[in-house]
Amino acid sequence: MTSQPYRPADIVSPYLLFLGDIEDSVSAKMARAVVIWRPEKAVGQLRMTEQTASVGIEDLSIEEAVARGARTLVIGVANSGGKLPAHWRDVICQAIEHGMDVASGMHQRLDAIEGVAQLAREHGVTLHDIRHSHPPLEVGTGEPRSGKRILTIGTDCSLGKMFSSLALQRGLENAGLKARFRATGQCGVLVAGEGVAIDAVIADFISGAVEWLSPAGDNAQWDIIEGQGSLFHPAYAGVSLGLLHGAQPDYIVMCHELGRPHMRHLPNRPMPDMAECIDANLSAARVTNRDVKLAGFSVNTSQVDEETARRELSSLSQQFGVPATDPIRFGIEPLVAAFTTGAV
């Protein structure tokens, strides 16, 4: 295929990050991704209530943000189902009326909201639907291809696969290796400036989309492919499986959150057994790469104290014979060292 990855370079910054009235901080991951990885692009956040989750930057109204040069209202939320709440429409329209573009990573298209497309035309602004901006794709082939690939996987969804991928890419580059982050989610695409939101791709083309996103390449370069969902989450396992096949990973990095009581949005479904989860992912990945290996663990330990975190990470490392770290709390270096020293 000759098409290029979707590049949201025309999503003009600075951004005003719109958080609606969500109170679940995990759902604010679109805004948080910008604040962590592209902080220079955000002038502030817009929250509808004081109880709304915050990403820790200044609260601004649309008028205040425009006065500071904001060019695009970014919907900073990723919710289950990807539908924009109807009562957010007025804020979106107000931004358009003030001359702002609007960017969304939701499944629901902005132009599907009553009156929004017409209003955008009247004010000469652009609507960006990041999840729906990918080129024509083909089915996967599973043919072996050159290059080195690492895929982040997870015991559940929304527990740090994008963060881990970006941290690993940065860590490898800092260690003098060539590394490229391959975004497969709307947050990653916005941060990286290119990629494919894989959960908006027709199922037949998921593996092909990942083959296209991470094509045959230089054996001296590492492609860090952002994982999605979990093989053990009944809502999102189909996407996870297609990614495993299309990525043709040489290594997988397991992402996990200590203390998570159950699968996200499924209070009656416990978290999977770690050994079973690793075995299932390795088995699925062997469909396209018989030599795939577990490289290590990237674990969110924010819900436990430091002593508990270190003990649990050490236990994982001893049980599976690979490094385990919390990239925020303790740094990504143990995982980077596994690749730079040839330990994996």
TrEMBL record:
It holds the Pfam family DUF1611. It comes from the Bacteria. InterPro entries: DgcN-like, DgcN-like_C, DgcN-like_N, P-loop_NTPase. Residues 56-132 form the D-glutamate N-acetyltransferase-like N-terminal domain. Residues 139-336 form the D-glutamate N-acetyltransferase-like C-terminal domain. PANTHER family: DUF1611 DOMAIN-CONTAINING PROTEIN, GLL3100 PROTEIN. This is EBNA-1 nuclear protein. It comes from Kushneria phyllosphaerae.
